Amino acid sequence: MLKRVKLVYYSGTGCTERVARCFEGSIRDLGSEVHVQSLSKNAMLVTAEYDMLVLLFAVHACNAPEVVYKWLDGLEHVKDKPAVVISVSGGGEVMPNTACRVTSINKLESKGYQVFYEQMLVMPSNWIVSTKPPLAKMLLNVLPQKIKIIVNDIEKGVFHRTTPYMIDRFFTRIGLIERLGARYFGKHIRFSDSCTGCGWCSSNCPAGNITLEDGRPKFSNKCHLCLKCIYGCPRKALKPGLIKFVIIKDGFDLNSIDKIELVEEVDVLHLTKGYLWSGVRKYLLD
Ligand SMILES: Cc1cc2nc3c(=O)[nH]c(=O)nc-3n(C[C@H](O)[C@H](O)[C@H](O)COP(=O)(O)O)c2cc1C
Fold it and tell me: Does residue 119's CB lie within 6 angstroms of at least one atom of ligand 1?
């Protein structure tokens, strides 16, 4: 089943990239060949020569980010090639997220791919509300084991497709408004006096939305709202001018979560009280 695997991912703040690298390791451990590529501004991606495509994306407003849909629209046609779709979210497989893979799967199937496996993985949330530190660390700890199970399933050809809630199909439509918001958001990012014009933002923006002009960042209207520039700026000099509530005030940094030490057993039930965290609870206790 797994001979030559193509892994294509879209990540803003590094969670999906971490997932993709973990998949890569697990697939390699089986002795298979795997080629990993990120979906960013100038990526030239060839998938037809591979035996299987694995698509991974960060969930944005109950959808895949627009760049994923654009890439799928331009994808070459194949004949009955197996494919896997993995979504990575902060909230898990609960309402309103359950339909987030539907459009990507439909697009893949219209290109001749046979999507036989789909799954949601949960990583720390990078927008609006942060995942509590012990839970965030636990999510990173359980990742390799979760992926090993998925890779074993894929290797055996296990069929795993899910049925989204009807209401979530509606939410994915509403979520498309986020694209418009993203353009406004990106255009109105501000830089403070602490900006040194180092160019980190312009060279790391996956959308190609930031250029340096006279040693200062200039923002265009191509933003994906991935938040990489705001959280990743080495001087913390970037701030949104609009839609400020989406940013976690204390920032988001996967490397800091890595450094958290869990000294005692995490009380998952206690830390995941309320509907908002029910998907994380289900995921961690599964
Ligand atoms: C603009 C935006 C929209 C998001 N929408 C959702 C959502 O609808 N549901 C959810 O569970 N998480 C949502 N998230 C959280 C991310 O899916 C989650 O933190 C993911 O791990 C980020 O992956 P990345 O680091 O690869 O970008 C959103 C994040 C962003 C930036």
Answer: no
Cβ of 247 below 6 Å from ligand 1 = no
The ligand 1 atom nearest the CA atom of 57: 26
* pTM assigned to the model: 0.96
Which residue carries 């701030």 as its tokens?
239
Task: Answer left, alpha or beta for residue 91, where phi above 0 means left and psi between -120 and 50 means alpha.
Answer: alpha
pLDDT digits (tens, 9 = 90+) for 19-31: 999 999 999 999 9
Q: What is the pLDDT of residues 194-252, one digit of tens each?
A: 999 999 999 999 999 999 999 999 999 999 999 999 999 999 999 999 999 999 999 99
Residue whose CA is closest, atom 22 of ligand 1? Answer: 58
Domains in the chain with CATH codes: 4-171 (3.40.50.360), 177-253 (3.30.70.20)
Q: Is the peptide bond before 164 cis (omega within 30 degrees of 0)?
A: no
Q: Which atom of ligand 1 is nearest to the CA of 13?
A: 25
